[in-house]
Design a protein that fits this description.
Keywords: Amino-acid transport, ATP-binding, Cell membrane, Membrane, Nucleotide-binding, Transport. This protein is an alpha/beta fold. It has ten helices and ten strands. 34% of the residues lie in helices and 26% in strands. The longest helix is centred in the last third of the chain and has 16 residues.
């Protein structure tokens, strides 16, 4: 258990997750500091998405401890974890295709009516949301759906935002819009945990970085340090930030 005065908002200590017969997370130790954007990087199948899903209670940790601002969230159901102040965008975006953009956004307004000022801020980040406000979300392009998912997650201020590969499948212009939006969120002092495969996105946004392999965290450090060290990039990821 972490101390409530810790600089870390989220802490995972020796977390294990089993999915059926498969042992996916094998002792994950992860800290997400208040007010920072922490990148969670790693090759496909390293356990990044499973880590986010375990934090949200979608899959229950079989061992270890998960703490949010000093209070354990292990064993809690997903709805109660979300009510602790976590906004989560899964890899599949979680959009309700038959509902309009407006109706999708309304689902995120847990504390009452949508704040008009906050909504206009989101429209400034993602003008397409205003343009297609009454259109079924299922009719939007992949990039526009991702904007709905992100917009829904940030509609109300959260203690922690988690995004699972938000740039996946997006055209470069949409990736640039997403980066700009997350930079604006950082200016609010938001705490963000971001899973990414696109190292250019990681370089543009990350403060801290944790690298996963085979269900464990194998590296912690600053994103700036990893960006400068091509040898470390190759060893940890088999990739180079400068090549993306």
């Amino acid at each position: 258990m972490i101390n409530s005065k810790s600089s870390n908002l989220l802490t995972l200590q020796a977390v294990h997750t089993h999915i059926g017969p498969y042992h996916i997370l094998q002792g994950v130790d992860l800290n997400v500091a208040h007010g920072q954007l922490t990148m969670l990087l790693g090759r496909n199948g390293a356990g990044k998405s499973t880590t986010l899903r375990t934090i949200m209670g979608l899959w229950q940790a079989s061992a270890g401890e998960l703490s949010l601002d000093g209070a354990s969230i292990k064993g809690m159901n997903t709805a109660d974890i979300a009510l602790r102040g976590i906004g989560y965008v899964p890899e599949n975006m979680g959009i309700f295709s038959d509902l309009s953009v407006r109706e999708n956004m309304l689902l995120a307004a847990r504390s009452g009516p949508m704040d008009p000022q906050r909504l206009e801020w989101i429209f400034g980040l993602f003008p397409a949301l205003k343009q297609f406000w009454e259109k079924p979300a299922g009719k939007l392009s992949g990039g526009q759906k991702q904007m709905v998912a992100i917009g829904r997650a940030i509609l109300e201020k959260r203690r922690l935002y988690m995004f699972d590969e938000p740039s996946k499948g997006l055209a470069p212009v949409m990736i640039n819009s997403m980066i700009a939006a997350l930079r604006e969120l950082k200016k609010e002092g938001a705490t963000i945990l971001l899973v990414e495969q696109n190292l250019a996105v990681a370089q543009a946004l990350g403060d801290a970085v944790a690298v996963m392999d085979s269900g464990r965290i194998i590296h912690n450090g600053s994103m700036a340090e990893l960006s400068r060290d091509t040898e470390l990039q190759q060893r940890l990821l088999g990739l180079s930030v400068g090549a993306h």
